[in-house]
Amino acid sequence: MHGEAPVSEFPFAAVVGLAELKTALLLNAIHPRIGGVLISGPRGSAKSTLARALAAILPDDGEGRRPPFVTLPLGASEERLTGSLDLQRVLAEREAAFQPGLLAKAHGGVLYVDEVNLLPDTLVDLLLDVAASGTNVVERDGVSHSHPARFRLIGTMNPDEGELRPQLLDRFGLCLEQHASVSVEERIAIVQQREAFDRDPQGYVARHAEAQVALTQRIRRAQSALAEIVSEAWVYEHIALGCQEAGVEGLRADVTWHRAAQAHAAWRGAAAVAREDLDIVEPWVLAHRRTSPPAQEPGKLSAHNPPPPPSSGTPPASSGPVGPGGDTAGSSGQGQWGAMPPVAQKSVSVPAPSLSDMIAHERGSDCARASQAPAVVRRRGHQRRSYLASPRPDWFATVAANHGRWPWRRLEHRKTQAAPPTVHLVLLDTSASTLGRQLLGQAKGLVEQLARQAYAAREQMAVLGFGNDGVTPILLRRRAPKALRERLDNADGGGGTPLRQVVAQAARLIRQWRRQEADLRIRTYLITDGRTRQSLAGLPALGDCLVVDTEQGAVKRGRGETIAEQLGARYCRLPLPAGRSRPGGQA
Predict the structure, then answer these.
(1) Is the peptide bond before 321 cis (omega within 30 degrees of 0)?
(2) Dihedral class, residue 44 (left if φ above 0, else alpha if ψ from -120 to 50, else beta)
(3) Alpha-carbon distance 528 to 446, whole Å?
(4) Within 13 A of 57's CA, how many CA atoms are on the CB side?
(5) Residue of 347, 367, 365, 372 whose CA lies nearest to 355
(6) 152, 165, 171, 252: the active-site residue
(7) What is the DSSP secondary structure assignment for residue 252, as one 8-state letter?
(8) d(C-alpha 378, C-alpha 463), whole Å
(9) Burial of 565 (0-12, 13-18, 19+ CB in 10 A)
(10) Sequence-ordered list of residues with C-beta below 8 angstroms from that of 280, at least 6 positions apart, any chain
(11) Residues sharing a CB contact under 8 Å with residue 423, sequence separation 6 or more, in sequence order
């Protein structure tokens, strides 16, 4: 309505705490080619507040125009993001013209992507490409167009909703993880500041105007000085050694580390990059790229340097629910396996069954259906289901092809995808009960064979190990690797069998992936000996799922088939290595 006051955003300078996150956002504002900032944290940790507040302190474009703040909605299409043909202008003026997208609108300002981990991978990859290059190139719908798109990219995500794939995670320049724990003093200060803002937004903003202007001027000075920052030879050597020690892949981390250090030196008003600049930005650059654990001080514990396991005489207490027979949810039913230290067991070669044949075998052989759940793979004697969709009209391409003439002489159609992408999700039991008779090694050998076939088919794969009373990613979702043995051999066995935990985590991953790609085909393989008393009652089904039973003892509990029935999955026994027979003389 006319005369309404503009909505006031909470001032950047007034946000309590979050010093590291503020600094990272400021550095990306000074040097947008850092590639954006990814903020991972729980709800209510001021991620969105800081992102919106940053746009208000950015310097103007020199002509008095304020930098824009653009939000990319989850349901946005590629055309909405990059721009496309202006259909209205074509129909009205019979002229092919470009309709700018969100990337063009964000030029010079901030592009904010909330829940970036839920966006389709194609969109994330596209916006990261543009953020790194500063130029958006559109070759689509009869339009060939490019325009500058230099913006500060800020992505936020809640890790409870799932992670970004490693290939996309690496594309973000800096990554910071916000923890849910806040001191009592900070909680009080945050509530007091928020109440003061809500009572009088304009007055609150006016009281912080001087601090906001000071930040804007400092950003402008740092931007002007950035090109003059000097980096001596030792700086490049320090970065190279640090990246090598962290085991990062490629050189993106080296380039980003140097750019971030330059921006921090400019922010300090220094003429050259110093050790403090390198040290401050190092964790933000390497946190999401590191494959080797950081060096730890003696006696200092971390996620990579956990405390030693308790001795066998003092089994750890379990906080899990009590299952039937008095076992805790983490117990394998075979004694207190959780008291044993992890044990290495290398892969053992097993026959190479076909991915389809493993599921399609009829009852009476090693593989059988444990339920009447519908299968999405080919059964013998049946045709493979066709995924070719009916062609849909492409109205933009049709208008462009007919040059605005009416009636249309030619109708263009969208290209159809021959088949949706496929992901093989493997849940590998690495508990202590799988260590006997080389069961874990044989299971690893099977996973290796599956990886080879998925690699040949250009399909994707993810592997989660569950044992030692926890779930550990062995392979995050990616194109199936040509060789997986080294990763598998590094997965130690031991501890209890957290079956409910891994099934619940797999269900969350499947739900997240399908939100990103609705037509994604996901095949889940649960490879376990079934040595657990945990029930799967109340957990969601995993869809197209195969339970591979690795149990080979003379006395069988037969839990594998029960687990398959509870999941509505197919059932299959682990193929044996050459020259080995099952107990009791079974083949």
Answers:
(1) no
(2) left
(3) 12
(4) 30
(5) 367
(6) 252
(7) H
(8) 23
(9) middle
(10) 23, 264
(11) 459, 460, 461, 462, 477, 513, 520, 521, 522, 523
| 143-148/152-157 β-pairing | unpaired
For residue 266, which amino acid is it? A
Q: What pLDDT digit, counting tens, does each position of 526-580 carry? A: 998 888 888 787 888 888 899 998 887 655 667 888 888 888 888 888 776 555 5
Active-site residue 252, yes or no? yes
Specify which residues 368 forms β-bridges with. 571
In this prediction the pTM is 0.60
Strand pairing report for 422-429 and 367-369: unpaired
Q: Which amino acid is present at 241?
A: L
Q: Which residues pair with 478 in a beta bridge?
A: 461
Question: pLDDT tens digits, residue range 152-188?
Answer: 888 888 776 666 766 667 778 899 887 766 778 888 8
DSSP structure string for 178-247 = --S---HHHHHHHHHHHHHHHH-HHHHHHHTHHHHHHHHHHHHHHHHHGGG-B--HHHHHHHHHHHHHHT
Residue 300, helix vs strand vs coil = coil
Query: What's the rounded Cα separation, in Å, for the pair 152 and 150?
Result: 7
For the record, the structure tokens of 432 come out as 């202590």
Show the DSSP H helices in 247-320 as ranges. 252-268, 275-286
User: 150 by DSSP, 3-state: which?
Assistant: coil
